[in-house]
Amino acid sequence: MSTRTVYISMIITAFFWSGAFIAGKLAATIFLPFTLTFFRFLFALPFIFFLLWFKEPAKFIPNKEQLLPLLILGIVGTLGYHFFFFLALRHTTAINSALIGATNPMVTIVLAALFFKEKITLVRLVGVGVSLFGVFSVITNLDPLVISTMQFNQGDFYMSLGVFCFSSYALLSRKYMLKFKISPLTVTAYTFLVCTVLSLVLGLLLENPLGTVLQAPSKVWLEILYMAVFASVVGYYLQLNAIREIGAPKTAMFINLVPVFTIFLAFTFLGEDISLLKIGCATLIIFGVYLASRPEKIPVEGQ
Question: How much is the mean pLDDT over the chain?
Answer without folding.
Answer: 85
